[in-house]
Write a structure and sequence with these properties.
Carbamate kinase, about 35% helix, four-stranded antiparallel beta sheet, homodimer, about 400 residues, eight-stranded mixed beta sheet
Chain lengths: ~400, ~400
């Protein structure tokens, strides 16, 4: 007998029929003798409907009241799922975040979980109930309703799994796991049976949006066994997210991530002296612009070029800031380019394997793809290339690292 | 400075525009220096939408989970109204039933209020907030969400007014007060400036549906000053519901109530001996059929006729029961009639005025309306007449008792 936390997202509970399907899946796990906690999101579309109501009243809705409003979305789903479970003859009981007592800080609309009182849930589980918990919500110490922000239901699932010391936290979504890359770009993309937390973090932040990033961090911190599964398929083991030590024989590269969300800025002919990077990025930070990749070339003839990427929406704002910086530091020019794409290879195996970077660069060179920026971390290498080569680059790298081949045991 | 509890029903908060109107009305009271607690229902149509969702899953929805589901309706409204108040520059804070702590028993879908913790509300009021409370809902001692049943928001308003010792509880609805009778039947019907609690109870239970009956009982018990007003008119003082001792010069008759909800059963030729009424009504009670009026004629030649009324929907069931009873007690026949109407005159003044009944009967006789049954209480006289004479009877009585004349001061 295992204790399993299952999290179902908005599309998985998006209609009465789908809520019934979820109830049937839960019933199967109960029939196998497991204890089940089901964490659910609002029915798809509901959160947007509520936000729209709020915005008709206040352009910037009051955060405390917005949380009161939005938390009703999950409350509807828990009641309906509990009814569907009872309709199948199971014992079931719903809990709002406040009823569990998922204690959070008071940062309305983006609260963080501080503690979970698992006592009532445990008692219900031990007496044979399926426990249905509203994701995405909690209460602060003063009893105000809080929400964890978009995608927060994943975090609720993982946090409950940690508090209950569950054997597994299953995240049901509309894909059947984590893939080596996006199958829409590379038809040969394979589902990964396992991926490490570190890789998952890199994949998620790089654009393979399967799991909310905070939930992955949370799972890593509390060593929760996390599995991504499809709620629309009856079979399939999904992708298990593991700790590195559990899985010594990692493939070198697990996946290829990519995005077109960024724009590149280059400030040319910067006097090459200490503190120059701070002079450039200080005003950018003051303007609340997030920076992703940062590259500074080696200086020749006393000057250097300095490049970084920002979100595409903020290119114009960043250009305005840099044109002031240019004058102040005596640089030659400022260039902006939003026709770029970032492509990354991710894998914990690269820590122990040499030659990964050169293999990556050769694969791109073989396709005549010019690399504009390079950035590396322990378990990933990212390059910026011309926007129009993105799909080609992803396919080339997917093949070069053998990701289309079945993993050898 | 007064403390006023204002209750707004579903149609009063039925759209974003109407919620804004409510906020503006509350703002006016604040501007006059009053403290305001606003109790709100779910937006009109929302409760039915939620019940419909539930019934798609369970034909008889689980009561605990139905309460979790339905309570979201008011929760949406409190958040939106609090936002609308803030948008007008007021301080405002919303409370669910559980957050106030409106403690109820655990009778899901028809819970009764046991206690209200008014401490937090009082603190917010004293610091200048408008307090917005979800009607219709509470929590039981174990923290389960409960609802008070349809119309329960009126009860929430009155209960909060009692707990906070408010100066007045204003019930805003889509009519501008309590009328001497239904203006659709008698165009001359007048709005009553005052009505006593006892009369209100008789009027409400007899079909003039303005206030939920339990809220009136509650107001009477805790001496809450209750006023019915229109939320769609800016002026108007509505109808104040008073205690009899406050208003010694009551008119003899305050209003005419009526309904077509009942059917009449008569068991003919019943042996006239002690205990016969119990023999007839015992099996009816066992079949869970509610009985309203009961009339037993004086017996002649050793037998009597026994009549009573039930809800129209239960006529067939009651006939089936009586046909068995007939044989058992040796009665002659059982007659059923659902073409009846009940018309009542209500007024605390009749306690001290003789001749009211005969005046009523004469007014009906003048219109050739035959009276089939008569039933009296301290402050009302009800008659059963042929269905088709109902409107005529109401108009005749309205005129006979001078209700179309302005009340003399």
């Amino acid at each position: 007998m295992a204790l399993i936390v299952q999290k179902y997202g908005g599309t998985s509970v998006g209609s009465i029929e789908r809520i019934r399907n979820v109830a049937e899946r839960v019933a199967k796990f109960k029939a196998l003798g497991h204890q089940v906690v089901a964490v659910v999101s609002a029915m798809s579309g509901e959160t947007n409907r509520l936000i729209d109501l709020a915005k008709q009243i206040q352009k910037e809705p009051d955060p405390r009241e917005l949380d009161v409003l939005l938390s009703t979305g999950e409350q509807v789903t828990i009641a309906l799922l509990a009814m569907a479970l009872k309709d199948l003859g199971l014992r079931a009981k719903s809990y709002t975040g406040g009823q569990v007592r998922i204690l959070t800080d008071d940062a309305h609309t983006k609260a963080r979980i501080l503690a979970i009182d698992e006592e009532n849930l445990r008692r219900d589980l031990d007496s044979g109930h399926v426990v249905v918990v509203a994701g995405f919500q909690g209460v602060d110490a003063a009893g105000n309703i809080t929400t964890l922000g978009r995608g927060g239901s994943d975090t609720t699932g993982v946090a409950l799994a940690a508090a209950l010391k569950a054997d597994e936290c299953q995240i049901y979504t509309d894909v059947d796991g984590v893939y080596t890359t996006d199958p829409r770009i590379v038809p040969e993309a394979r589902r990964l049976k396992t991926i490490t937390f570190e890789e998952m973090l890199e994949m998620a932040s790089l654009g393979s949006k399967v799991l909310q990033i905070r939930s992955v961090e949370f799972a890593g911190k509390y060593k929760v066994k996390l599995r991504v599964l499809s709620s629309f398929e009856d079979e399939g083991e999904g992708t298990l997210i593991t700790f590195e030590e559990e899985n010594m024989e990692q493939p070198v590269i697990s996946g290829i991530a990519f995005n077109r969300d960024e724009a590149k800025l280059t400030i040319v002919g910067v006097p090459d002296r200490p503190g120059i990077a701070a002079h450039i990025l200080g005003p950018i930070a003051e303007a609340n612009i997030d920076v992703d990749m940062i590259v500074q070339n080696v200086g020749v003839d006393g000057t250097t070029d300095f490049s970084f990427t920002v979100h595409r929406n903020e290119l114009k704002k960043a250009m305005d800031v840099l044109s002031m910086v240019k004058t102040a530091i005596g640089a030659r020019d400022v260039l902006g380019d939003d026709k770029i794409a970032k492509v990354s290879i991710v894998g914990v195996g690269m820590r122990t394997h040499a030659g990964i970077a050169s293999k990556m660069f050769k694969a791109l060179a073989d396709e005549n793809i010019n690399i504009q920026m390079i950035s590396t971390s322990e378990i990933k290498i990212s390059v910026v290339v011309d926007d129009k080569y993105m799909e080609l680059a992803v396919r080339a790298l997917h093949q070069a690292f053998g990701l289309d081949q079945p993993a050898s045991a």
